[in-house]
Amino acid sequence: MRPTMTDVAAAAGVGLGTVSRVVNGDPAVSPAMRERVQAAIDATRYRRNELARSIRPGQTSTTLALLLGDLTNPFYARMAKAAVAVAGDAGYAVLLSTADEDPAAEQRAVSELVGRRVAGLMIVPDQGDHAYLAPEVELGTPVVFLDRPATGIEADVVVIDNERGSADAARHLIAHGHHRIGVVVAPSYYTTGRRLRGFRRALREAGDQLDNSLVRHLDVGSAEASAAAVADLLALPDPPTAIFATTGFLSQGAVLAMRGREHEVALVGFDDFPLAELLPVPVTVVAGDAAAMGEQAVRLLLARIAGESGPAHRTVLPTRLIERGSGEIHA
Predict the structure, then answer these.
(1) Neighbours of 57 (CB within 10 A)
(2) Please, are residues 229 and 295 in contact by the beta-carbon 8 Å criterion?
(3) Residue pair 203/174 in contact by the 8 Å Cβ criterion
(4) Which of 272, 221, 280 is nearest to 255 (CA)?
(5) Lowest-confidence range among 55-59, 141-145, 285-289, 290-294?
(6) Residues 210 and 179: beta-carbon distance below 8 Å
(7) Model confidence over 1-16: pLDDT tens digits?
(8) How far is CA 293 from CA 172, 248, 301, in A?
(9) Interatomic CA distance for residues 198 and 331, integer angstroms
(10) Staple partner for 319: which of 165, 183, 204, 217, CB 3.0–4.6 Å?
(11) Is the pLDDT of residue 52 over 90?
(12) Residues 6 or more apart from 311 whose CB is under 8 A from it?
């Protein structure tokens, strides 16, 4: 059960009105009394219920929260749209927030969201330790992680099959005669690391090997950084005959670098991106279902809100290879 201001008052040995004045920032409260009440707030793990002002007595929150990484990423936009739709059908609204891939910003955003007493949290986690969420989970707030698992806490998670999808890309390029393949890898503690691992594994299983001199680990996962890396690969004395890009942004950068050579060098990207099918040589991609990820996350969250208990669920969604032309160029 969540602690109340009454619990704080009892722990501090003061009246409820004093706690209320401290919580609401009344400047008339002495520093000593403020410190005493704050210590009780910390001890009881009380959080001010910002949402309660808009909820009639007897009601519970019908608001969920979705915390994303990079709002400019079309994959997350599709995920959010689907989550909002499924939640709406169930009578829930969704608060959207972003942490811009910053662990400290993520913790601040989560603190703000739980302060609004949302009924549940959906988080695209950063690489920090997520043990900080344990007290909130213990107080009854269900959490579902999307796209990447969290560290330091057991919770439901929905991811796509990054390794299998990348293995499919490798096998596809091998089938079209490619053995000298350049790979551009975006920085990520989980997704692109799994994608590179799956790509390497499929090459080994085919009796081939990824040349490490053709792998570019980028400091920034932008189209501009990818374009520079791919241009560097194509300028080698013995350039690769194919490129594998581990995110949609990197695929876009590869397209820029390959202008004038798009009919000579094969390209397969991981994650679809806008207008990929309308380019002079439409881009072959491994696509994960972002909408399915958002839908599944909401359903898991609603089940927990309804009282489902038990061990954490790990849902792995399949990918599909979409052949459009760039991945079918023969070596």
Answers:
(1) 5
(2) no
(3) yes
(4) 280
(5) 55-59
(6) no
(7) 567 667 787 888 887 6
(8) 25, 17, 12
(9) 22
(10) 165
(11) no
(12) 154
Is the Cβ–Cβ distance between 225 and 218 less than 8 Å? Answer: yes
Strands 215-217 and 63-68: unpaired
Pair of tokens at residue 137: 């989970």
pTM attached to this predicted model: 0.80
The residue with tokens 């669920």 is 313
Averaged over 136-158, what is the pLDDT?
Answer: 90
C-alpha to C-alpha distance for 230 and 153, rounded to whole angstroms: 38
Task: Tell me which residue of 236, 256, 232, 246 sits closest to 184, measured CA to CA.
Answer: 246
Dihedral sign, Cα of residue 163, residue 164, residue 168, residue 170 = positive
Q: Where are the alpha helices (DSSP H) in the chain?
A: 5-12, 16-23, 31-44, 74-89, 103-115, 134-138, 162-175, 191-205, 223-234, 248-257, 290-305
Give residue-wise pLDDT tens across range 159-201: 999 999 999 999 999 999 999 999 999 998 899 999 999 999 9
3-class DSSP assignment, residue 313: coil
Q: Which two tokens stand for residue 103?
A: 């662990």
Tokens of 73: 């990423």
Q: Name 27's Cβ contacts closer than 8 Å, sequence gap at least 6.
A: none
Distance from C-alpha of 278 to C-alpha of 131, rounded to nearest angstrom: 44
Residue type, 212: N
